[in-house]
Amino acid sequence: MVKIEAIFRHHRLSVVRTALEELRLRGMHHYDIRGSGYSLSGTEVFDGREIMRDALPRVKLVAVVNDEDEEKVIQVIRKAAQMGTPGSGKIFVSDVREVIRIRTGERGRAAILESAITASENTPNGKIPLETPIYVSRWMEGEKSEQKACTRYVILPPKIAHNLSAGLVDIPPGGFNDSRPHFDKRQVYFVMEGEGTFFIDGKEAAKVEAGMVVEVPVGMRHMVKADQGSRVRYIYVEDNSFTYKVNSDG
Q1: Which among 74, 127, 165, 190 counts the fewest CB atoms within 10 Å?
Q2: Structure confidence by residue, pLDDT tens digits, 33-56
Q3: 2-95: which CATH topology?
Q4: How many angstroms separate the CA atoms of 18 and 24, rounded?
Q5: Other Cβ atoms within 10 Å of 217 Cβ, number
């Protein structure tokens, strides 16, 4: 884990926060500071007043993230805080030896997840405290999207769980789901009902039926087509923390 501390101009705060929230990073703090960088001479105008550069008002944003998220967070902050002029700010990165969630005692990665849930012997009646955020939904009540030849229900929206989402796809007899590649996620299909065919890049790759698990290749067009007379339903689970890298060596 690393701690990222960014110092930048006040009027970029809302832009930076919005960009980080789109990255699904919600654990952050920010506060007002005063100081200067290495250029101590001269003045700057702030809120219509001219002030010395040795006491410039800035905002400091702090976030603790997992190692694999470090570079993504840094680049998002750089892009959002960038002014293209001297004094745009600095980003400092340092290692974090330990993180402890005060309420539950969780440590490390579990302590910085959006909604870590722990039921222990110390919890009354073995139940999770009511203040713990829990997402509960019936799949038929989830976000529904009608596609050309199937219906998709979002069971677990990406914004709820850390880098994880899930849904159910309902394909009528002879129907199929959209054929497209994914470069920013890993997918696994759990076939719950019916029989059909799994295609990769337009070619038949495997016959699928209830009880099968299918790992979807990253970066390749894929599709499930239901057999005539058979309705296919499968649950998909997505890992949204993955980044596909193209081999530039050919």
Answers
A1: 127
A2: 887 766 555 555 555 555 555 567
A3: Alpha-Beta Plaits (3.30.70)
A4: 10
A5: 15
In SS3 terms, the chain reads as: CEEEEEEECHHHHHHHHHHHHHCCCCCCEEEEEEECCCCCCCEEEECCEEEEHHHEEEEEEEEEECHHHHHHHHHHHHHHHCCCCCCCEEEEEEECCCCECCCCCCEHHHHHCCCCCCCCCCCHHHCCCCCCCCCCCCHHHCEEEECCCCEEEEEEEEEEECCEEEEEEEECCCCECCCECCCCCEEEEEEEECEEEEEECCEEEEEEECCCEEEECCCCCEEEEECCCCCEEEEEEEECCCCCCCCCCC
Spatial separation of the C-alpha atoms in residues 18 and 72, rounded to whole Å: 14
Mean local confidence (pLDDT), 107-112 = 78
Distance separating alpha carbons of residues 83 and 61, to the nearest angstrom: 17
CATH of domain 139-239: 2.60.120.10
Q: How close are the terminal C-alpha atoms of the chain, in Å?
A: 34
Which two tokens mark 9? 């101009």
Amino acid 76: pLDDT = 93
Q: Which of 1, 15, 16 shows the shortest CA–CA distance to 113?
A: 1
- Is the pTM value of this prediction over 0.85? no
* The amino acid at 1: M
Domain ranges of the chain: 2-95, 139-239
